[in-house]
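User: Reviewer 2 asked us to show a designed sequence for the structure in our supplementary figure. I'm pasting the structure tokens here. Could you produce the per-position amino acids so we can include them in the response letter?
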């Protein structure tokens, strides 16, 4: 589990995003994954796993203070590239994330609830195995399965001295129904919940840095919600993703990660 983190989100037009990029570049370094790429951006793909009642979606819509999402993150469609099972949990205003990487050929084993052997993971760090096991437990409690593929381009700026500060610009957010684990990066008929808007996220682990506070005031930024999975579900239509939406499974509100 990472240290507690805070995330502040803003929706911008491209012109304002470019002005903020210039400001941020005075304090942070471009993430190495974006070096030499168009718009300094690299692709990010997430396969969201949810119950037929869309339990994690409704946790967010209802504003539950203790909620989580389950997603499988990948960055390309190469068979040899790893994927990462992630639990993103919110407790009040704090964000916690567990993440464990596995080989693509081990994904079906995880989704079937089988134990993952160390040789299937991408790191010998035991925290990876713990994260994968916890993901499996929550998935089984929800009776969750793949629902929506969300993809976008991410421009990230990082603190060179630590992981305490990160600023990201997410562009071209799109999503579509995906019920398999084929991990294809091409979306065929996606929805675009934010249109041409850029999603700015300010992520920090301790106090809100003074220079960021000054940036927010200088550019007149206002916080807003920008939950990519939930926005995609709303445009796709809940009825196309779940069943018995008006009769959630008993005890569903008691399922929270520890």
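Assistant: Here is a per-position design you can include in the supplement:
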């Amino acid at each position: 589990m990472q240290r507690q983190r805070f995330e502040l989100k803003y929706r911008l037009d491209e012109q304002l995003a470019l002005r903020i990029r210039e400001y941020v570049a005075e304090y942070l370094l471009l993430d190495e994954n974006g070096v030499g790429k168009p718009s300094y951006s690299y692709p990010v793909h997430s396969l969201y796993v949810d119950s037929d009642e869309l339990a994690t979606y409704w946790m967010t819509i209802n504003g539950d203070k203790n909620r989580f999402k389950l997603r499988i993150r990948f960055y390309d469609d190469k068979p040899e590239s790893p994927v990462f099972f992630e639990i993103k949990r919110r407790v009040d205003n704090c964000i916690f994330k567990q993440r464990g990487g596995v080989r693509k050929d081990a994904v079906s084993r995880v989704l079937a609830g089988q134990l993952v052997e160390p040789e299937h993971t991408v790191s010998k760090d035991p925290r990876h195995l713990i994260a994968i096991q916890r993901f499996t437990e929550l998935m089984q409690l929800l009776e969750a399965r793949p629902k929506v593929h969300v993809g976008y381009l991410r421009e990230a700026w990082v603190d060179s001295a630590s992981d305490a500060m990160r600023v990201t610009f997410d562009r071209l957010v799109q999503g579509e129904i995906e019920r398999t684990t084929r991990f294809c990066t091409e979306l065929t008929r996606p929805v675009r919940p934010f249109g041409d808007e850029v999603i700015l996220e300010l992520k920090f682990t301790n106090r809100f840095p003074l220079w960021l506070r000054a940036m927010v005031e200088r550019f007149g930024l206002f916080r807003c919600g920008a939950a990519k999975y939930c926005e995609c579900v709303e445009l796709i239509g809940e009825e196309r993703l779940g069943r018995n939406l008006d009769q959630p499974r008993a005890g569903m509100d008691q399922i929270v990660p520890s």
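For the response letter, you might also mention the following. The domain at 6-241 is CATH 3.20.100.30 (mRNA Triphosphatase Cet1; Chain A). The longest strand covers residues 145-158.
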